[in-house]
Amino acid sequence: MSQSPTNISIFVKAGKDGKSLGACPQSQRVLMLAELKFAAKVLPQFKTIPVNVSRSPEAFRRLGLRLRVPALYLGLGEDPVDVADDIVSLLESRFPGGILQQNEEDPEAELVTRDFFSRFCFYVRDVSKDASHLESELRRIDCYLKNTSNNVFLCGPAPSFLDCEVLPKLHQVRVAAAGIKGYEIPANLTGLWRYLHAAYSEPAFVHTCPSDAEI
C-alpha cells in the first residue's frame, strides 16, 4: 500500500436515532466497498460517521461539506469528496484491489440491473399502478442470474463494484415493497433469491446494512 492515511472518515446517512445506519443505498454502496477493501487489507481502518444532514456534526461542517452524504475524507491535506461515483473511483485509485475489477464485469449484468430501482420508485410513489413493471425488471435480473449459475454474485464468485451498487438497492426493494405495498418478490425467482441470500452471507454487506425498520 503506497499510502497510510491516519484519519479516513466516511460520512453516511444516519438513522432516526442519529447513531445507527440510515436507509441510503449510496451510503451502503460506499461502505460496502470500503469494508471489502479493509477485509482484503488494501484499505486501512476507517471511521464510519452517521450524519443527520439537518444537524450535521462539527467534523462534517469543519470540512466544508455540503448537506449531502455519502462523503469521504482521506485525511490531512486531502479534499473531501461527496459524490458517490467519485468516492468509489477515489477509493479504487488510492487503494486498488480487494474486489472484482471493473474490466472483469459483464456488460450484460450492468444492462439487466439498470432500471429495476427506478421502477420500484415509481411503484412505491404510485406513479405505477401495479408492480408489473418492477416485476418485469426483477425477472430480467433473475433470468441473467440463472444463466450464469456459476456466479455467486453478478460477475463472479466474489462481490464486484456492480454488486456494491445493486445489492443495497435490491435489499431496499425487498423490504420496502413488502412493507409499503405488500408486494413480495416471487418465490420462483430463484436466481434472484440465491443472489440475495449470498448478500446476506457476505459480511461486508451485513455490516453495512440498515435495519428493516429504517428502510
TrEMBL record:
Residues 7-73 form the CLIC N-terminal domain. GO terms for molecular function: chloride channel activity. Pfam families: CLIC-like_N. It is a single-pass membrane protein. Keywords: Membrane, Transmembrane, Transmembrane helix. GO terms for cellular component: apical plasma membrane; cytoplasm. It comes from the Eukaryota. Gene3D superfamilies: 1.20.1050.10, Glutaredoxin. InterPro entries: CLIC_N, Glutathione-S-Trfase_C_sf. It is found in: Membrane. Belongs to the chloride channel CLIC family. This is Chloride intracellular channel protein 6.
